[in-house]
Automatic annotation (TrEMBL):
<dbReference type="InterPro" id="IPR006555">
    <property type="entry name" value="ATP-dep_Helicase_C"/>
</dbReference>
<dbReference type="Pfam" id="PF13307">
    <property type="entry name" value="Helicase_C_2"/>
</dbReference>
<dbReference type="Pfam" id="PF00929">
    <property type="entry name" value="RNase_T"/>
</dbReference>
<dbReference type="InterPro" id="IPR012337">
    <property type="entry name" value="RNaseH-like_sf"/>
</dbReference>
<comment type="function">
    <text>3'-5' exonuclease.</text>
</comment>
<dbReference type="Pfam" id="PF04851">
    <property type="entry name" value="ResIII"/>
</dbReference>
<feature type="short sequence motif" description="DEAH box">
    <location>
        <begin position="464"/>
        <end position="467"/>
    </location>
</feature>
<dbReference type="InterPro" id="IPR006935">
    <property type="entry name" value="Helicase/UvrB_N"/>
</dbReference>
<keyword id="KW-0547">Nucleotide-binding</keyword>
<keyword id="KW-0067">ATP-binding</keyword>
<keyword id="KW-0378">Hydrolase</keyword>
<feature type="binding site">
    <location>
        <begin position="285"/>
        <end position="292"/>
    </location>
    <ligand>
        <name>ATP</name>
    </ligand>
</feature>
<dbReference type="GO" id="GO:0003887">
    <property type="term" value="F:DNA-directed DNA polymerase activity"/>
</dbReference>
<dbReference type="InterPro" id="IPR014001">
    <property type="entry name" value="Helicase_ATP-bd"/>
</dbReference>
<keyword id="KW-0347">Helicase</keyword>
<dbReference type="GO" id="GO:0003677">
    <property type="term" value="F:DNA binding"/>
</dbReference>
<dbReference type="GO" id="GO:0016818">
    <property type="term" value="F:hydrolase activity, acting on acid anhydrides, in phosphorus-containing anhydrides"/>
</dbReference>
Amino acid sequence: MTTFAIVDLETTGNAASKGDRIIEIGIVLIQEDGNVIDEFSSLVYPERDIPPFISSLTGIEEEDVLDAPLFSEIVEEVYSIVKNSCIVAHNIEFDLGFLNHELERAGYPSIHNQIIDTVELSRIMLPMSPSFKLGQLSEMLGMGHDRPHRALSDAQATSDLLLYLMERLKQLPERTLDYLLKIEPKLKSELRPFIQSAIADNRYSTTVDEKYELWHGIPVKKVNRSQAKQVLNLPPFEEWVTQVYESSEGLQKLMANYEWRTGQKSMSEDTYRALTGGQHALIEAGAGTGKSIAYLLAALYVAICKEERILITTHTTSLQKQLLDEEIPRVEKLFDRPIQAVLYKGRSHYISLVHFRYELEQSESDNYDISLTKAMILVWLTETSTGDMDEIQLPSNGKQFWHKVSSEQSTKSVHLDMGEDSYYDLARKKAEHSDLLITNHALFSLDLISEEDRLPSYDRVIIDEAHHLESVASRYFGVQFNYRELQRQLSQLTEIYQKSLYKQLSLPEEFFKDAGSCQRLVDEAKEELNQWSRYMFQQAKRKHRKSNKAKSDVGRIQCTLDEKDPLYQTSKEMCHRFLSSIRKLVYRMERMHNHLALTVKLVEAPSLQVLLSRLESQITFCKQIIERLNAFFMNDSAAAKWLETEGEGASNAVYLFSEPLDVRELLKTQLFEKKRSVVLTSATLSTNRNFDYVKKTLGLFGMDRLVESVIESPYQFDKQVRLMVPSDFPNIKEDPESFVEALSEAIYSMAHVTKGRMLVLFTSYEMLKNTYYLLKEFIDPEEFMIFAQGISSGSRDRLKKNFQSFDQSILLGTSSFWEGVDIPGDDLSCLMMVRLPFQPPDQPLQNLQNQNLKEAGLNPFMERSLPHAILRFKQGFGRLIRSSTDRGVVFICDQRIMEARYGKYFLSSIPKIPVSYRSTRELMNETEEWI
């Protein structure tokens, strides 16, 4: 029986090689059956200072280790415990690296025992876990973990986790274990004996395989294919909706702390009226209305009574998750049958088991990341009901591997991923029989303009977060190119030209000549692309230095591509050189395809079908490049064209964009005139108490049969919020440096009043960066933690979580933080807006739109800039109050809201709240008194 030594160390830092030392060691010695043999724990004197961050994390202070032994004084006991055991740690490279460093320092040999890394094993056995941190895994699995970041407690938690994961391993089907055995040599953890033992136990078990079925030779979880829907006879809508909202058997019974809100019922009625009356609707629902429940009730009633699916599209995945995991299961109880709601995604989200099996058979040259990815997918297939990649937390390189095994590899003529054993087909059939079809604005926009159907047909649609529709449609109705992504995709093409793939086949010599030519042409195309992107990068930087324009809100240099500009003309010529290589490549690949297609007819070999489908999808990909770049450089005065470069990035990180100046006509003809009913809803659709701006931008202006409704928030904003504007800030145009200094002082002062818990919203990435570095100069990290978008590492959600995990913290954000960030309760007490959110006037798309408006005799500021800024302002304001008990201050460092003629439009767009316009010091005192 194997004995495991589970080791955890607390250290002064991350690198033993740079002088970091152990400050605490914990070891748990257990047997395979879970029997604890021994435990060891000791603080260690590190012979160096303990950094404040480590003390904050672990609770171990300098005075705690003053009387602790040196590692050399406990080394004999430590070595005797671990020397004959399988070493286990949560991130083995860290703990074993430090332990061996200290053993060598003390004159003992390094340990080279069998090892298991529980981070790696968790990734394989729990592939759908949202996190692989020890504390979060312990919480998710309901395991006790009393003192996180203390060595013995962490070691005990790791031992519990190890036993749980080993038990999971034993429950896997035999074929999955066989595949894992082939992958195991490339992993860090030495799992072979445990996999072999599980295979032996499995052979005599009758229960394991009952939960699984074989698709293309791979065990997957059995799926429910039933599409039956029961017909319901519901009372008339008015009677039914009154019961739902007002009777004790309705929402009161389903929701704890349910509050009856007239606005929520009104929204349900307005949505129903539009959906059944063949009308379109604009419904603004203030914070706290409960808009998703309101429109879901109406949509489900119509879907069930008319036996017809209704489409719901959102901008964010978080709202989709909320609808599917919380709201729909809640309202489902109001109906006497299950609700069939399907989240619909494109082909690339679903795994193709034909392609995955092919990759499993080609594992000899896999690197570590690919081996780990394959192991994770094998286990995930025994748990997933959907085959959707968003369920699995793949390593970074695993996402590239996914492209090779997704259903997008299946083509029109080579249907490898169709029928009973296909997750994509399963998703499509479920969608066709659904009550509610949920998707995102991107796929929705693609479906509107695509010749092939991207979504199952629908007649009625609810567009939530509808204030994003114009920008998303504009992006997808245009053209986008990312140099680095294109280089990556071109590099992946070369895999299909390897002669070793075809060595067993009797193919003519011409086939192999064409494969060699394709390899050379890809290299030629990549070189042309490299030269072209370097040229654009250098020219954009040169223009930026000359013009001294501000960078975009994410720190990129933007450069308009004007057809008369030499930059545009030269780029067009260089693009044609690149496309010439791509055209030659297509010709050669089509010749390869013809030879291979003929061989497929003569030889029965599944791997050949896979290669043929990949060749077809690559030909399609190359044709799309030609088509899109030709479209980009065609003379089209009704589109804005520009390039962007990373200000500090690689010398060829270039992005190309083309967007139509006006999407009104496209939306009008492709959406509003084709669909029976379109309901647009958001917390921010109106400006100046009407929908004129949104109707103009979306193509609804002048249309009759419109339902228009503004539903007020039930929150008592006048008691929950104070709006404050300092009267003594320096003029930003005359003295930008003094403005940043005043801003930094105001942030620091306000942070003392509100004990951190501040979100500061910027419209300029440059100003965010300057403010962040100035704050870092005089704010002690032990006093306030500062997180900044684009500077602190991590996604928006990761920054938000980090901000919430510290008691006293400040978060600086640009564009994406103005909306969709939900920080309820005491985690946020102050929202600071640095400037009113006007778009930069030199932004390429806006610049051309403004010129068009001027030529039409209209005022661009009043027609577009102001209403757009008001909608952004309302979104920003909405970050602060997320529940009826929230309280806080909105601090706006822009005197224009009080002094400019248009300032009143911003103030009238939000609920009536007390406004103070005084010196910064007076505002701080007022805030302190109020809070």
